[in-house]
Amino acid sequence: MTLFWLQLRGELTKLFARKRTYLGFGAFLGIEALVLFMLQLPKPKAHFRRVIEDSGYIFEQYFSGLTMGLLILMWTTFLLGALYLALVAGDVISKEVEDGTMRMTLCRPISRLRIVVIKYAACVIYTFALVAFIAITALLAGMAYRGTGGLLAYAPQDQLFELYEAGPGLLRYLCAIPALGLGLLSITSLGFMFSCFNMKPAAATIATLSLMFLDSIFRNIPYFESLRPYFITARIATWLNVFHLHIPWEKMTEDYAYLIALDLTFLLIGLASFHQRDFKS
After folding, report:
1. Which is more confidently placed, 281 or 93?
2. pTM more than 0.85
3. 200-222 burial, b if ≥16 CB within 10 A, otherwise e?
């Protein structure tokens, strides 16, 4: 077990030594600043003022840094998060195969199972690290821009409209971070599976993004409403249930069980593909 942790530490060191690993962190800082700027424009601000005041609440109290942090999470993490998670996960094995370093690794007394498990564990850690970074920096940026205050959780597509005071709102926000990370892990797992296949790193990334975006497109078509529970992106959106006044624990448990089952399926398929590959030629 000690050897496993040493190997995982080495894999994390290698992962975070790559420049592309930090693309997501840097990009989100720029996006957060852009979103905060656009939320201060007259029309978006007037829209939120109308939503809050029509419900009988004070606009200045709930159009706060906490609300802005949540808006950034809802608007950016799926599209941009999917991009950078697919980039890293789709690269983790296929890039080493392309560079020829995987053959050297397999010359050592280490099983292919351990290689896959260690690299997947590194991707899991990266996923939660990226989500935590996005959530915390979005919250800090929002508070620096608008100060403290209550939380408006507003997502019409998911039938969500709740208002919380600062303390309960912050607690809900912090609880949503691991929930979001667990959901986005399915994108990482899909990218990792493609990385285990015999394909280039760019192809693994593109395949992951294509499937996720197609899933999202079909999920939002009204004619496919009856098929909504089968779409991965619909299950990922369950993290927003944390902000409901009465959290639907049963639904969230079902959604995360579905996603974890998918993660394990993607991992096993990737492991089977990697195990059968011939790296001698």
Report:
1. 93
2. yes
3. ebeebbebbbebbeebbebbeee
